[in-house]
Amino acid sequence: MSREPVTTKRIDSQQSFHPQFDDATADTVLSSNQGTLFRMHSVTLRATSGLLRLFLSDPKPTNTGGDPASPPDLTNLSLTTTVDMSTDVISLPFDDVPIQRVLLLVSAQPTEPWSSFEELEAAINVMEYLDTPGPLTFVRASCFMPVFSSQPIRLYGLGSKFGWNEVTEHAAVLTLSLNLLPSSTSDDNQNLEEQLTRLSSGALYKLLKFHRLRRDTFRNLMYSVEIFGVGNATQINCPCGTEVNNSCWRELRARLVWETDQNPSGATILSPEMEEMEESAKCWKAKCSRCGSLYYNRIETLKNIRSCVGKLPQAP
Q1: What is the C-alpha to C-alpha distance for residues 203 and 285, in angstroms, rounded to an integer?
Q2: d(Cα 78, Cα 299) in Å, to the nearest integer?
Q3: Residue 313 in contact with residue 217, Cβ under 8 Å?
């Protein structure tokens, strides 16, 4: 992410310290863009933040107030609960909540579970700005929490951005219940389009290719003569000698391939809804016009169809 320059300012008499970050022995003060102050030990900040390590080791900040000819001295901080108004404060361009979350993580204090993707992304923005690899490792482990499963494309984008392969693969599988190229223009589809456009071109291509590979693999399996010998045979006769009419099987096969295109997870095919499809009913009733023998063994055919779903690629 693009990083604004680190700046300092003087403490305003109206500013107050965050109750969890008001240690009188701390020697560094940070401020949110809402004006809340956070006391932190510089040794902690230097150990956990690449940006503040450089800044505090060689303080040459941009002073946004006071005499520009007199750079602020970040070591001249009060060690009492009442801070001198001349104390310099390091300004962070973020709200209180994400700053609080990141500072809790770098100082090894307990945190509440993530409640939303918006909360996670706001904290990640602070982590990227401050260059804090430790909290990002915590985020990486948190990506498998159920709270993020409802937004798999955002999760996939996050994993792709940081090169977290296990997160990317996990999220890619979660996206299989989505049609990434819907024909309608509903609000849900517009939201889907917005999330997809936020992905990098490489990540988007890989995800679309994964969905397409699932569909094409399923189609190849459904057309296999080895798996569906009767339905896919070029020419086959009923035991009575009458040629089998496979038109019902071809209709069902086309419908299932279409369903896989719409929902690459295969959930529709594996659900009881498949039995209610018109094409299914016609296929199971198809029989020889001469001897009345059923063309297809329903139980065996369903078993083979479900086996095809299980053979589909499981990762991009």
Answers
A1: 45
A2: 80
A3: yes
- 251-299, pLDDT tens digit by residue? 999 999 999 999 999 999 999 989 889 999 999 999 999 999 999 999 9
Residues in the chain: 316
Strand bridging mode 28-31 / 37-40:
antiparallel
Q: What is the DSSP string of 192-248?
A: HHHHHHTS-HHHHHHHHHHHHHHHHHHHHHHT-TTTSTTTT-SS-B-TTSPBP--HH
> Mean pLDDT across the stretch 157-162?
97
**In sequence order, which residues have a C-beta less than 8 Å from that of residue 289 and are 6 or more positions away?**
242, 245
Residue among 40, 41, 86, 96 at smallest CA distance from 63: 86
Do 127 and 102 meet the contact criterion of CB atoms below 8 Å apart? yes
Q: How far apart are CA 218 and CA 180, in angstroms?
A: 18
